[in-house]
Every structure is written in structure tokens, then in C-alpha cells.
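TODO from last week: model dTDP-4-dehydrorhamnose reductase.
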Amino acid sequence: MIKVLITGGQGQLAQALAHTQPKHQYLFATYQSKQALDITHIQQVKRYLQNNPINYLINCAAYTQVDHAETDQKRAYTINAIAPGYLANLAQEFNFTLLHISTDYVFEGLLAKPLIEGMTTNPVNYYGKTKLAGEQNILPYNIPAYIIRTSWLFDVLGDNFLTRLLKRSQQEKHIGMVYDQVSSPTYIQDLATTLWKIILQIHENPSLYQPGIYHYANEGVTSRYDLAWTIHKIGNLNCNIIPKHSSDFPGFANRPSYSVLDKEKIKSTFGLTIPHWQESLAYCLHNYRQ
């Protein structure tokens, strides 16, 4: 039996994991919301694990409001930095494998070349600092931990770039989007499918797959403006997408100018073929219209 616990069970990635969960007769997954299992309370999680042994934990619980994190610092740090350390501590005690989701925002974004896992990190916003601290609180533990950094998540569920743009297009005629921030969009369903593949492969032969940091995003590179323009075109949105410089939005937290993640490590390690973001976006919007 492969027993998997997913924290943040009501979030968009957890929903995608539920949707893409393989029909494997020996795979059993439990999705726990923050209300049912709060990862910031180590004793609560410990009691749960004492009663419910697991093989894997996918940590989807996170503080993801980048702009609010600048002022809501204590809460962001507790969820994104301290709690992952708790989970690593418990992984060591209860002997399970930890999969933790991190972000491209751990990078400064000044290098215009794909970012490999070992490059120097230097976050430009507080959200990125908390996520980097979460990684650093996991890595010292002698456990099988896989930290998956990803970027620009989108889906038709939850609060993300795509859903916000679809909503705004019904209320606004002209929508400004920055053209000086570049990365790789990630379809959440693709990320979820990959996480299941990783678990099944590790379970099959754990000695083949080195724990550590991995990068995952869809193939291809784009700006936020071009991503919005493509959504506008495919989705037939009734609005205009206007190119803007990031300096035109002074009230927002800083973002990396260039945060394209190099994915060669995860592709070669787990034998992945990753779809292009435009292909996945078209599929996503097609399903939305259906």
C-alpha cells in the first residue's frame, strides 16, 4: 500500500492532485484542509501521523499572496518557512518521504538565462524570502525530501493568473499587463501529474532518485503580457490587453524580471516529457469552455 497525505487539501494544487490521482489499486491518498490539519501546529500533525501512518506527504499548504506577504509577514513566515521545518522533523521521526512545493521567486531574476537548481538565490520580495527559508529548514534533515520549485501556476480552478484575468475581462475593457517580467507558465494539472509520477517512480526504486531540489514548469518562455494576450486570443475575451512596465504598478511587491527555470535535472532524472505552456493553456481553456 502506498499511503499519501496531501496538506492544503482545499487548494488548487491539491484539487489538481485529486483530479489526476492515478487509478492504482495500491495507492491511497488523503486530502487534509488547513481546518482539519494545520501544518503550523507540529503537535497536531504529530498526533495525526501517530494514528495514520503514511509513506509520502505532499505539502501543498502555503501562503501564496505575494503582495499581502509584504505586510502580513508573521503569518507568511510561519506557514512558508517554519511549518516546512516541522514537516521535515516529522518525516525523520515517522520515516516518510516529503515532497514540498517551492517557487521561482527564490531567485533575484537578474540573469537572462535559465536558472539551474544550484544557482545563488536572492529573493526580491518577502514571499520569496519565506519560501527560501522553508527550503533551508527542510534540507538539513537526513530525510528523503524532494523540493519542487515551480513558476506562474495557472488553471481554471482557484486563485491564479488565469482565473483573475478571466474575471477581470468581464468587468474591465482595458487590462494592463507587465511586459518586463519573463518566466515559464505552469499548468497545475501538469504539475500534479508529474508529482504522482515522481511518487510512483520513487516507490518502485527509491535508490535511483536522489532527493534534493528540482525545477518544474511547462516548456517555453513568455512575459506576463504575452501570456495574457494569448489567453485573450484563445479565450475570445472581450477586453484589450495593454502592455505596461512593472514600474506602472508601484503598489505591488517586486517580482523577478527573469525567472525561467531550467528543467533538465527533473526531466533526465524522472524521464519526463513536459508539454509547452501554449499547448497546456489551449487544453485548459478548451475544457473550461466545455
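Done. The mean pLDDT is 97.
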